[in-house]
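Researcher: Please generate the 3D structure of the following complex. Treat every line as part of one assembly.
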Amino acid sequence: MSEVGVRLDKYFSEVKRELETSIPELGSKEFRQIRDRIRKQLKKKENEYMLVIRSLKIIIFGDWNTPTKRKKLNDAKTTLLKNGVYAQTIDDYYNMYRKGGLNQIQILETCCMNHQLMVFIDGESPGTITEQNYLSENYIFHGKVIFFIKQSKFDKLKNDPSQYIRMFPTIITYKGTDLLEKILIYSRFRIYRLADIIMKQSTTGRGLGSPSYKSWKERLRKIRR
Amino acid sequence: MGENLKILYYTASKLKNIILENNNIEILLYLAKHNPRITKKDIIKNFGEDSLKGLKNLELCKLVKEEKDMLTLTEEGIFQVEGLLSIAV
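Model: Done. Output below.
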């Protein structure tokens, strides 16, 4: 816990400690050298691209009602962070936003709008079912979701198109040990793709600059009518 | 509450320019080393009054936040500084 009571995630606490020791003192020759190198390198297209990628956010959904399940979510988050992709887990999100007095659905709505990719690990706890139901109803978010389900469970459901998993356009199966690897692979593809689109749109002036662009809030309002 | 995708688009596509403007690189490195023990007065003392405009843009990008008069890097800010140092090697 920092001096002003801001609780940093374990990954960020460790990174912060490394930054404190590795960054030279302000005013020193070494500090100026690092600053100049950053300034020079940031003018290269590939490094600007890296900045955009790191500014995009993933939220990871899944069961977290036991320490083992919570660890699984955290391991997925740490894997993404260590590979240059920003991620949060839904339990951390609830912890942050509950203080503001928001209820679960309000938190979910905020979360879905604030994150560019939603990694959903199939689960069975009541909270996860609520989240699945929320996403099912609000289909405008479906394009942002990649849904991970155990191969064995998928094999039981795949021949019944009435099953709940039909609500997720992107379904990825995993076997026990390859979940983290698959989350990283597919998340990275999606985030890099979105970064490409943002870079291209900022060059062409299309997309969000368009007068016909509608915000997520407006789109949600339309489907609720 | 809720996403303003225009802010995201603005920050994602303009982030490079925001980081390059004024003393923002120095401010980010300085905060990474010393926060949350830094105030706006420290920023003015070390970087001048003009640096407050850049600081405000860093806050808009959610890389920095002010809490109880102390400036601190957000987790996103820490993440971006980590990335910046990786390209400076």
